User: Fold these one by one.
Assistant:
Number 1:
Amino acid sequence: MDELTHNISDGVVHFGNVDWWYHNRGHSSVRMATRIAKHVPTLWINSIGMRMPVPGKTQIAWSRYWRKIKSLTRGLKRDPESGMYIYSPLFVPLYSAKMLQFNGWLLALQVKILRWRLNMKHPAAVVSMPTMTPAVEKLKWNKVLFERCDDFTTLPEADKDRIAALEKRLLDISDTAIYVHEGLMERELGLVKESVLIGHGVDFDKFVAARNSPNGCLDLPKPIIGFFGGMDDYRMDVELMIKIARHIRGTLVLIGPKQMDLSSVLAEKNVKHIDQISPDELATYAANFDVGIIPFLQNDFNKMCNPIKLKEYLALAYPSVVMALPAFEEYKSLIYSSNSHQEFLDNIDKALDENDPSLIEKRRATVSSSDWDNVAARVAKLLAVPLTKA
């Protein structure tokens, strides 16, 4: 890959790790990209994935096929709110070494045409998905930034060695890698020109305002124990969610797209699922929770994750019950951290009985200086993007 030599990037191509049309748009990648799009032309390339759904092995495999087919029919669209362009690329959903190279050639061709169409002469690239590395390598960029949001080598059903090799190639060609997890950054120091711990932001004022004036949009039996975000089989602890539903007297609310089989959880009479809602509406719904939960598996993938929702729970200031993971350690005095299912259930009871008003301000103070606009501005600077209207 030959780099350009311009001081300013006149556009950004974001090789995303989610599909705009059916994944959770609350992901940090989307939060940053939509803000940068207000300053320079920004093209979001929908994820091409890392594993082929296998009926009988991968949860909701046929549903995954169908939603991707629907996404592909959309072609290039523009989001009217942010002005960002969304593109669903044509690719072959196979991940052998040869097919990855073929997809790299095919994707690079499509991106080259789109860059010309959008008049991006000196664009920067943000890459969140390692399977897009072959395409990035084939094009010239003003800057390349690797958004290191997860350790994808631990993703079930993905080829660990092949993904690790792609990640190494991407680190080699990147000007900067940004991280949300300090442990992952420390593990890769020296493998990339520049490493930056960027962290997550939070729409602080929006969440505080929603909590202070809840609108009662969740008219359900109380207390409401709630979770919001993408739900994947490699993240969520189904057994724990069933236990929570049976343990509480009120309602377990799950908000977000179903990317896994939740039928056993939804079979419980006091479980309510609400499909994907926009980030703008999320605070309004989440403000009605009495306790926020993160019932994640304590697996290798989650040990390197850093869920945005914890900062949002802290801005809402209600008690949060989580399975213990490294990213939660710094907030341990403000949340209820659990190392077993039984401890999680006991902590829900403690959270519901909480009677310490000072915790409200302490929780909010911890995240009050975090803001997505500030995070996006830091990323824009790394990409050599001027923060002025395009």
Note: Residues 97-117 form the longest helix (21 residues).
Number 2:
Amino acid sequence: MSAQKSIHQHIPGRSYRGELPPLTEDEISRAARLRQDVVTHAFDIGERNTGNPVNLANAAEYLEARFLGLGYAVHRETFMAGGVSVANIVAEKKGRAQPEEIVIVGAHYDAPPGSPGANDNASGVAGLLEIAYGHKDASQRTLRCVAFVNEEPPYFHTELMGSRVHARGCRERRDKIKAMLCLECLGCYNDRPGSQIYLPPLGRWYPDRADFIAFCSNLRSYPLLRTATRVFRTTTKFPSERLVAGIGWSDHWSFWRERYRAIMITDTAFLRNRHYHLATDLPETLDYERMAQVVGGIQRITDYLLR
């Protein structure tokens, strides 16, 4: 823990503290788009997993259509899981100068059994679509947006996890993945003291208000964490915290397994959200204004990585 604390102290910049700035017109529009995408997944489509294969297929079709509408080249990575044909939805915008270098932004679109999955993880998918929306024109490097299937149990940390399928394919093809950003639960915030909990002993060094977005990496991905944190803190007036540890709670874990640099960006999920994996994880429980500010910061990180 002393080594982890030392790394914690040397990541550049300080977390923003103070009153959040009012939303700009662009952020107001972004918040509306984020809300609509969360409602579409969590309310219109509903629970999305191999136990509900029709809903899962409807979500895949929706994502495919959205990416195509934004001018991306889209394909499906299809495989069998639990007797159901499932698919990652992969959308790419080739880079102009260095197309062989790839930045992946990913989020899982399935929901846990018994939950509509508004925050977990329709919020991440909505953020992914917003990143794709903000990069309609080609950058220097290739942007790959991936909506992963099967992140939730019973496939979590198995070979049938959608991100494992994709990350293995990246390694087999020898894809040059410059960075992978995993968007996992982006919409839950609370200013009340004591609203944020931690696995011990992390509470000694982190705030007790659930008003921040968290950046998490392993040691191999520390340079990416450092860059992402610096860009976010110098461009975005929103509280942020960071942790270097092997916490593989989402799709970034699959890329760690293939020795790629990957980070998770999250509101910390069950460590603050009382609706986690429950039927009450509904669209109306999310804070779309703060989510719009966070996604704007992630957009700027992606912009930087694609240069």
Note: Residues 115 and 277 are 6 Å apart (CA to CA).
